[in-house]
Predict the structure.
Amino acid sequence: MKVYITRKIQSKAIKHLRDKGFTVSVYKEDKPIPRNILMKNIKNVDALIPLLTDKIDKEVIDNMNKCKIIACYSVGYENIDVDYAKHKNIMVTNTPDVLTDSTADLAMTLALACSRRLFESRKLIDDGKFKHWKPDLLLGYEIKNKIFGIIGAGRIGEATAKRAYAFGAKIIYHSRSVNKKMEKELKAKKTSLNKLLKISDFISLHVPSNERTYHLLNKENLKLLKSNAVIINTARGNIIDEIELVKILKKGKIFSAGLDVYENEPKIHPELLKLKNVVLAPHIGSATIEARTAMAMLAAKNVVNVLKGKKPLTPI
Ligand code: DGY
C-alpha cells in the first residue's frame, strides 16, 4: 500500500512506515507542494500525510481514488475539508498533545520577550548604543501578580496557564466550556471575552481557526485592552484582525505583541516589521526536536492503524 507525504518529515516516521511494509513517497522540494504536483502524485495512494500549508479540499479529495486516511502532520486542520473527507469514508487525524508543551513554551517565550523588551535590547546593543547602565533603560513588566488571560482553555491554553501561574500570575480564561482542572489547580477564573480583554495584562490566544474564531479580536474589542497589555498569538493569524492590531500597536495603545502566526502567512504585514513593540517568530510553536518527531510518529502510527484495519489513535 502506498503512503504519500507532501514534505520531508522526520526520518524515524518514514522508516516506521517502510518497516511496516508500506511504499512511501515524499515530495522532496523544500517548499509547499504545488497543487498540480499534489494532484498528480496522490491519485492512487492509500494514505496521505499533508502539512498545514496544503489545502486538501473537495477537488483534492475527489482526485484520490482509494485513499483511506488523511493523517495531518499538525494539530490544526482548517486546511482540510473534514466533512467531505468523512462523507467519502476517508478518516482524518491530527497530532494533538504531542506539541502542547513546545507551543506553551513558545507562548511564554513571547510573553517574556515582549514584557522584557528582549529584541529592543539586542537592537540597542547592535546599534552600539549600550554606553552605560541606566536606572530607566528598557524598563518592562514582570509576570508576577499580573492578570494572565487565556483565550481557549484546551490543552495548549491550559499548559500556558500552568507556566504563567508558576511565574506568579493570576489566571483568568475565556472558553466555551469550564476547565475544572485549571480552576482547581491554578485558581483560574472563567470570564467573558470582553472582561478578559479589559482586565488582562497578558493575553494569550489558544483557540482553533474556524468561522467562530475568525477576527475574534477585532476593531471593537481591541479598544478594551489596557495600555500595558501584551498580546501573544501562537494559534492562528486570522483570530486577530491584523490590520487593527497594527493600528493599536502603532499608536502605542498597548505595550507589545508577540506573534508566531499571521493572517496571510507567510506574508507579514509590512508595518509589523517596522514596529519596535512586537516580537515576531515564523510559526515555530511546535518546532522542537521532541514535538516534531512525535508529530511525525503520530501521523505515521495513525496511517499504520487505519491501513491495517484498526482505529486511529487521534481521529478528528
Ligand atoms: C499545528 O500543528 O497546527 C501548528 O500550528 C504547527 O505545528
